[in-house]
Amino acid sequence: MGLIRVVITRILEDVAAAMAVLAALVMLAAQGGRFSDNLDVATHFAVVFIALAIVAALLAALTPPTKLRRFTLGMAALAVGLAGLLIAPEVFRKTGHAAAAETASLHQIKLIQINSWSGRNQTLGETADWIVAQDPDIIVVEEASRRFQRALESRAAYHRTCDPDDRCEVIIYSKVAPISAGLPKVREGAFFPATRATFAAPGGAFTVIGAHYTWPVPAGPQQQQSLRLTTMARLYERERLIIAGDFNSTPWSFTLRRQDEALGLVRRNQAMLSWPAMAFSRWNIHMPLPFLAIDHVYAGSDWVTLGAERGPALGSDHFPVVVTLALSPAG
Asked: pLDDT tens, 165-189?
């Protein structure tokens, strides 16, 4: 019995130490995302490695008070601290929130950002029912298959704006018809599925752009897509511009931080974990909680935020993001 206890203790010590060292090394490498897109890939998983470090510390706490346990706890604390350096700016930044009473008389819109995952979503009817029940003014949808379009359009009379050359992979649905639509031709950066619609509003029109980026691995293509979007965004009135989409990029990455700065807009959802929402991949893997914040809504300075919340799991591997905006008095 004593031998078994010794073996179990040794395994716990080694496993805990390995987990803590791994988390600390990866989060240390992630700091290099400031100057390397390849190292920046690690920043996206800061939440995962915080969890790994905490588990390592809990396992170490079950072992005798040896030098190895102190080392493990030190490495776990280092990993949490390094990950915290990445996440803290997002947690403490301002998102343009204002009290609803202060903006009750202003022009308001409710926008839903959702990657419908409609190629694999087996509950598209329930997804469409939920969207219609929210009564949004604008819906920005990625991975919008014909099945999704039929499900939503059979339930509500929304105007559809999309790029037919891209098979309408990204769609902007709106209660009112846009006054113009279509993406400008830009040479900079790399292609990504997107669409644009401009709407009339008190004091002047506002533009909505929907976007869907590739994954951050391998490094490079996503940064080029960001360059294309920021170039495109300069062609519209920044103060009233809204951009929403699945960016496959977390706010603790330096790639998204650079995009935030280049766009000159405010991301209205804050540290909102949106992936995964359910089983994903061909192996039907289930995750108990989302760990990537990759769906975002930006808006210019003429907009104030009345609310930003995550919707429920709807059969997609993404949670939807619901944002309510109002034109500020300055606008």
From this structure: 888 999 999 999 999 999 998 999 9
Q: What angle do CA 244, 246, 250 make, to 5 degrees?
A: 105
Sign of CA dihedral 140, 146, 147, 152: positive
The amino acid present at 186, given as its one-letter code, is V
Q: Phi and psi at residue 196, in whole multiples of 5°?
A: -145, 140
List the beta bridge partners of residue 172.
Answer: 140, 161
Tell me the H-state helices in the chain: 2-30, 37-40, 46-61, 67-92, 124-134, 146-153, 221-233, 254-263
> What is the distance between the alpha carbons of residues 187 and 29, in angstroms, rounded to a whole number?
33
pLDDT tens column, 96-122: 887 765 666 678 999 999 999 988 888
What the block records as the tokens of 316 is: 């997609």
Amino acid at 189: G
Which H or E element spans position 297?
Answer: strand 295-299
How far is the C-alpha of 83 from the C-alpha of 45, rounded, in Å? 9
pTM higher than 0.85:
yes
